[in-house]
Amino acid sequence: MPGVNAPTPAPARPVLYLVACAAPPVLHVRTPLALAQQLGYDTCLVLTPTADGWLADQRDELAELTGHPVRSTYKLPADQDVLPPPDLFVVAPATFNTINKWAAGISDTLALGLLTEAVGRGEQRITVLPYLNAWQAAHSAFPASVERLRAMGVVVQLGDSLFTPHVPKSGLNRPADYPWHLAFDASHGPAEK
Asked: 9-48: per-residue pLDDT in tens?
């Protein structure tokens, strides 16, 4: 019988889109990429335009690490998609700007376009790990944006025992210590595909 001893193809891994914004922790983006891969995800990296500029000299290495091109701009309509369709999203670090624009339905970057569509489809799990200071968090637009995203089913890891905004001008003095693991908590681990 042909094919009796043929190897069984490996099951497809769930596809995670890591959307990373321009904040100091993005300089350590290899940390969440490694964590996602350890958890069994096929991981794609999508950067905001400013984050892309910050990581421009690392794009080839990051593409090699993920096995996919790093995306930051919209493709032309006739171009083929170069990334597999996502099963879930992690947005980290998520900046004040991205959170507010996303909640308002603004999609002027690829990152925001993907996120606004994901919320609209309602099919993908989305976890957000913010990075901002306490003055930004006190702006009246921010709590409203967080609540709007949560009402859409987005998990925003903000609050006690999650991410807490830092004192202005202090930042996380060690951005390498950003709590990436919060974006991959047990309730949002890999799903069966």
From this structure: 556 899 999 999 999 999 999 999 999 999 999 999 999 9
Query: How is residue 59 written in tokens?
Result: 């794009």
Helical H runs in 67-186?
96-103, 110-121, 134-138, 141-151
Among 103, 90, 175, CA closest to 132 = 175
Helices (H), the chain: 30-38, 49-54, 59-66, 96-103, 110-121, 134-138, 141-151
Distance CA 109, CA 115 (A): 10
Place of tokens 């993907």: 114
The contacts of residue 28 (CB under 8 Å, 6+ apart) are: 175, 176, 178
Give this prediction's pTM: 0.89
Query: Is it true that the peptide bond before 93 is cis, omega within 30 degrees of 0?
Result: yes
Domains plus CATH for the chain? Answer: 15-75+83-185 (3.40.50.1950)
